[in-house]
């Protein structure tokens, strides 16, 4: 492969990648074996490849699109061709045709979102393609698939046995050529050489991990400063930047032989937090108020119209209120839990909602994404007496309304 970064060099590298593209092994796979195949082809840690896919998935799903394309166009171990090629009659694949069609249908909306997904999606796909290009350019010579064996051309004027016999000179054990029928037998084994124990080479620690962590801290500091001037630098976006920087550092470390595996302790938790915050869409998360807040009013005028915290817990106990009157309040949290306890005989109208989490609202329970429960409960004594109207919300966490 050419080492020059030019149009011809890029074209040559891409053609060589397609000819020797990775396969999807049966062993070590988590889903379809795309990450395991890339790691096996270029002899790097599969954990690094999986983390890279997770990081790219945070870019508006770019990693998902790349993974689906790999599932379609990388042949499974033991197959003649990939699932997509087999669908158009170019070879055979063990992937069922209905699954191939379903994968193709799944790619269509992902591709459409690539067109309309903005800079984050497009940048994620381009970063993925660029990473694969650099990986093949730097390590494409490793673990290349074996070329199919070629047979010599058949010559009708030469006997078949003469065409298929490779040895043209007698072996050392038959210098007179008396037994040509046995020339294909292996040479007699000589005296084995003594095995010399070799000391294990000392593995040098890569500087890629330390350098990448330093760059990530600079990105974090710059993002904190930029957040005062640009609204784009939200918590999920900053986490995405950190994961992308560390993922790229791990790839560079792997190419240089160091690996920088220590960054996994940062990348995996950050990826999980980023996925959770992206799913919850925490646009209203307030970070100016963090901590737990507990209140147990004993008079109606002591009940505040609004209880809220950005990260933490709100525990509101209304069981000490009198048996008559009317109360209306809102409890809102960003990340954490909101618990409200109401008297046993109060008439309660409650709206419980959680963008991502669980709700338990006077016996009505649900969990997952965009949970909403509306409950109208008059208590054990029926209508009459104290009336309480509640609106309890959580962006990411738990909402509980129960009777005391």
Descriptive account of the structure:
By secondary structure, this protein is of the alpha/beta class. 38% of the residues lie in helices and 20% in strands. The protein has eleven helices and six strands. The chain has a six-stranded mixed β-sheet with strand order 1-2-3-6-4-5. Strand 4 (347-361) and strand 5 form a beta hairpin. Helix 3 (46-57) runs antiparallel to helix 7 (118-139). The longest helix is centred in the first third of the chain and has 22 residues, at 118-139. The radius of gyration is 33 Å and the shape is elongated. The chain starts with 6 loop residues before the first helix and ends with a strand. The relative contact order is 0.08.
Topology overview:
Blueprint: H1 7-19, H2 34-42, H3 46-57, H4 62-73, H5 83-87, H6 97-116, H7 118-139, H8 160-164, H9 208-226, H10 235-255, H11 264-280, E1 290-295, E2 306-317, E3 326-342, E4 347-361, E5 364-377, E6 387-403
Average of the residue pLDDT scores: 77
How is the main sheet built?
Answer: 6 strands, mixed
Determine Rg (CA atoms, Å).
33 Å
3D shape: elongated
Low-confidence runs: 160-165, 282-288
Structural class: alpha/beta
Q: Helix fraction?
A: 25-40%
Determine the number of helices (DSSP H or I, runs of at least 4 residues): 11
Order of helices and strands: HHHHHHHHHHHEEEEEE
Query: What is the number of beta strands?
Result: 6
* Percentage of β-strand residues: 15-25%
Q: What is the spatial order of strands in the main beta sheet?
A: 1-2-3-6-4-5
Distance between the termini: 74 Å
């Amino acid at each position: 492969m050419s080492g020059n970064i030019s149009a011809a060099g890029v074209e040559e590298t891409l053609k060589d990648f397609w000819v020797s593209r990775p396969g999807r092994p049966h062993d070590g796979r988590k889903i379809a074996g795309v990450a395991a195949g890339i790691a096996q082809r270029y002899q790097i840690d599969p954990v690094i490849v999986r983390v890279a896919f997770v990081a790219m998935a945070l870019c508006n799903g770019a990693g998902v699109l790349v993974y689906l394309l790999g599932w379609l166009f990388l042949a499974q171990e033991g197959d003649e061709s990939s699932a997509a090629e087999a669908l158009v009659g170019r070879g055979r694949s063990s992937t069922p045709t209905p699954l191939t069609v379903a994968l193709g249908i799944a790619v269509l909306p992902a591709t459409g979102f690539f067109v309309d997904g903005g800079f984050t999606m497009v940048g994620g796909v381009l970063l993925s393609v660029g990473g694969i290009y650099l990986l093949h350019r730097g390590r494409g010579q490793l673990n290349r698939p074996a070329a199919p064996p070629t047979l010599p051309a058949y010559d009708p004027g030469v006997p078949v046995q003469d065409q298929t016999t490779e040895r043209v000179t007698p072996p050392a054990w038959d210098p007179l050529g008396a037994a040509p029928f046995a020339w294909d037998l292996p040479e007699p084994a000589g005296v084995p050489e003594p095995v010399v124990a070799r000391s294990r080479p000392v593995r040098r620690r890569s500087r890629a991990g330390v350098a990448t962590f330093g760059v990530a801290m600079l990105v974090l500091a710059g993002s904190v400063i930029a957040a005062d001037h640009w609204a784009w630098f939200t918590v999920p976006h900053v986490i995405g930047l950190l994961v992308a920087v560390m993922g790229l550092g791990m790839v560079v470390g792997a190419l240089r032989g160091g690996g920088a595996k220590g960054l996994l302790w940062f990348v995996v938790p950050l990826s999980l937090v980023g996925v959770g915050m992206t799913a919850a869409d925490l646009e209203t998360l307030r970070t100016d108020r963090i901590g737990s807040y507990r209140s147990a009013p004993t008079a109606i005028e002591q009940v505040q119209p609004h209880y809220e915290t950005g990260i933490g817990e709100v525990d509101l106990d209304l069981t000490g209120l009198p048996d008559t009157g009317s109360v209306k309040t809102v409890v809102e949290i960003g990340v954490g839990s909101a618990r409200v306890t109401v008297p046993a005989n109060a008439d309660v109208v409650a709206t419980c909602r959680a963008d991502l989490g669980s709700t338990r609202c006077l016996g009505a329970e649900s969990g997952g994404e965009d949970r909403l429960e509306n409950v109208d409960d008059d208590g054990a004594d029926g209508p009459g007496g104290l009336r309480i109207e509640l609106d309890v919300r959580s962006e990411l966490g738990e909402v509980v309304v129960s009777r005391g």
